[in-house]
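FW: tagging you since you asked about this chain on Friday. Here's the raw sequence from the shared folder, copied in full. Didn't touch anything.
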Amino acid sequence: MNSIISCQQVCYHYDDGLHTTTILDNLNLEVGQAESVAILGQSGCGKSTLLNLLGGIDRPSSGKVWIHNIDTVTLNENQITKLRGQYLGFVYQFHHLLKDFTALKNVMLPLLIRGVKNTLAKTQAETLLKVVGLENRTTHLPAELSGGERQRVAVARAIITQPKCLLADEPTGNLDATNANQILDLMLQLNQQQNCALVIVTHDKKIATKMERVLLLENGKLREA
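HL: got it, structure written out here
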């Protein structure tokens, strides 16, 4: 299997000066290209920590994490930021949209940061907003959008750079059942149509039933659920 993300013997712990708390313990994981994976676990089990390690946001206490066959442990912060921007997209429980930017500007932003010309970034952002069903909401600010609409904008922003893997942390946690199903179906559609791997960490077993693989994070390790 060609992996877009790979973890080998990953450990993560923190020390408060008195005690060392282990969050992840010799964890292994392979995420194949265009694969969809759900990682289940109780609150506080380390799901968000694991996602941050997969995305190169945090670094393991020991072990290895590869993104597109590149060993992230050997990279400095600038290198890993560039790698993350090239291969990964992120969707969180809270949309993290810039409140003073329209939906269109929020989606354009990752391309503008890359140096893409404004006209091209605008065209691509408009296309994606149409894909997520928001072609009539492009000029609206986040405060003028519903919760489901804001999360759709966040998904469009995450995929505008055409990442190889989308990492999602409880992406439907703040949504009602109808909007949650729509957002999940949208991400799975993008997973299939754009060959973009999808990793969702969640405590919702209903989400897991729609994914190709389901893993359980328990006692610092992953196992097939």
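FW: The beta strands are 3-15, 20-32, 36-40, 62-67, 70-71, 88-91, 165-169, 197-202, 213-218, 221-224.
HL: agreed, and The chain has seven helices and ten strands.
FW: great, closing this out.
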